Amino acid sequence: MKKAVVSVINDLVTDQRVHRTCVTLQGLGYDVLLVGRHKRDSLTMPQRPYRTHRMNLHFEKGIWFYFFFNLRLYFFLRKQKADLFVANDLDTLWPNYRAARRKKKPLVYDAHEIFTEVPELVNRKFKQRIWKRLERKLVPALKHMITVNDSIAGWYQDRYGIRPEVVRNIPFYRPEAVHTLTRRQAHLPENKKIILLQGAGINIHRGAEEAVEAMKYVDNAVLLIIGGGDVIPVLKEMTEKMHLTDKVIFTGKLPPDELRSWTRLADIGITLDKDTNINYRFSLPNKIFDYIHAGIPVLASDLVEVRRVVEKYNVGKISPDHEPQHIAALLREMLQSEEYPRWKENAAAAACELTGQREQEKQAAVFRQFLA
Known about the structure:
The protein has 372 residues and is α/β, with parallel strands linked by helices. Helix content is 42%, strand content 17%. It contains 15 helices and 13 strands. It has a seven-stranded parallel β-sheet with strand order 3-2-1-4-5-6-7, with helices on both faces. A six-stranded parallel β-sheet has the order 10-9-8-11-12-13, with helices on both faces. The longest helix is centred in the N-terminal third of the chain and has 17 residues, at 62-78.
């Protein structure tokens, strides 16, 4: 049995794309090892059908964290008798590239985003230059690359002459799954509408602050925020200062299977990333597909890939801006709209087409070539 080592810097529990990668590899007959990090607030690792290894590091952020993570990962990979290396995002590429070259084994790079254009780097030019230099050195030398949508694939092709295979970030669709969680069990109001914002990375420029402020103008509804991210403390402070504690509910991170049950309790799902950089402009958050799989309409910001999905399947509305009162008006309109039942029906129909199972086949075709 050939062995594949998959590396990611994110939390192993909540990263659904990486989980799908591991399941796909295992389905092809690979012995899979997923490697990541363990943080102080990491969730307990659930039982997985493949092996996992989480590294403990003294630093959890900043330049020293990335330095020691890459160093530790490189020496860990060197010890592995691997037949295939899979690097997720630029912050794991260097150790995988070096280990794959050393062992003369294939490497697949899965770019979940345009890493060098994330907001955390755009305003930190020195750090951005370091990552861009690394990207310019390594990406043109790659033979096998995957990314999340056509816009990002085109960006890499224009700059580096490599056209990644597109595997969209869509979770597996499981219509047979039984969801018994009720609002009462989840301690959610049964007599109000629920507006849901979920995500593993609720960070700056994601529209979360505007969503919270919009709740000042929406009655008989609550905003449910599920997940973690840099702006969560800011959102909690806003909620207190604006006296919205009865309208905004925080749950923290939830495992994917549990998250799906909570998502189905909502009336509207929102995704409000801002067009503040190239990375967000081309983003296609997997929360959109979580909402569609749950059969709930979507209010989304006007980003090219997001608009394409919402309008093609007619599953909700696009907000042209991030003004809180305008967002509130759209939410009120959607909750009272005669189109609401149709959006739900369209979401249910779209869920059968927008599945991780279909995307898995594209990904499997990339990995299958290394089995010969």
